[in-house]
Amino acid sequence: MNYTETDKIHEECGVFGLFSLSGEQVAADICNGLIALQHRGQEAAGISVSDTTGPKGNITTRKGPGLVSEVFDRDSLDELKGNIGVGHVRYSTAGGSTVQNAQPIAMNYIKGSLALVHNGHILNAGDLKEKQMYRAQAHYTTSDSEVLAYEIISERTRTSSIEEAVCRAAAHIRGGYACLIMSPRKLVGIRDPFGIKPLALGKRGTTYILASESAAIKAVGATMIRDVNPGEIIVITESGIKSISSPTPGAYAHCIFEYIYFAREDSVIDGIEVYTARFRAGQSLARTDHIQADLVTGVPDSGLAAALGYAQESGIKYASVFHKNSYIGRSFIKPTDDERRAAVHMKLSVLESVVQGKSVILIDDSIVRGTTMKQIVEMLHAAGADRIHVRISSPPFMYPCYYGTDVPSTQNLIASDNAAETVCRRIGADSLRYLSMDGLREMVGSLPFCAACFDNHYPVTENE
Questions:
Q1: What values do phi and psi take at 253, rounded to 5?
Q2: pTM for this structure?
């Protein structure tokens, strides 16, 4: 399993699609939307566009490794002519960090062409791949996104429209996903039946937008209309927008880690603002904690809202303890402990005058391997902190995630085979407490969520 220098769980990617019914060029807006989603994937980016205002034409694609700003400049965006398009930012998981696995996946087939961008993981991709190889007796697909594209193409050869093909393909797919499919004249979005992966719909004048987060919709000056419902298919054409509802399991399971860590705190997902959810998690931690300390602080960035909630609920003052270097750039894979340690020290430094001689409550969103938290605790001690009480605004991460993160097994999950007391000793803290499952429910109210990484209860498996 690969970890970046921040030793965090990573979302696989972010998707963004845009259709200007008035014929405006969309590449620059898609680029801006992807920049707003850069936190969801920093290893590759891509855009595909098509022009619906002229004769039926080809889909044009540009993609490559790196940040959005490294892949696209003004000249390359000017070459992407079209009023409909999809974009993608990628963080590699099992597929590997290669340009071949960058998206969009753009393909030509007997009835036309399509471009696909995908967030999540298809659990039964192996079975679908075998069937596709048998039918084609040729092409060997390399990723579940490509498997998904071929499944839609296969159905498209037997249907009258791309949306019908998507509906038929969705009946065969198991997993957590949000997917955008662009034909030369249509934009189609689909969200998995459990609502595990987020997908939002927005509008700006005569332009419709589909995106992984509402923050990306706001970034292009648009207004969020609503979340795409679990199992819903949104179809946008020159005639406007329509919704197709597919059968859903009746029990939704939205990914709780969107609220804990993945999403931007200014996003609203399924009616809940991410910042508010994190603030509530901090409040819940404080209500069940009675430790005495001089100050509360959070690990930037996703620990800050929870730290503020903890401080408000406990009455212990909040203080900014860390300076974060925002100019490091891409989160490269760090294969050795020494490189990870160096990266943490480049990214964070401690304000010694704030912590010297103080008892500190340190809030972070999660502990995965424990190496980064150990280094942060060491940095605080070196800066003169007296005692360090670590509080985590999620339960212990004990089980793998199969829905599109970089945690496919329990290997290197420090909490999977270690009690809190053991983890506390390993990270060098004076005490350690996690958010309870009841606190997790308080975080998002009545929203049904997937917490399989905490409780081992998976909403969907390969064979369901």
A1: -150, 75
A2: 0.91
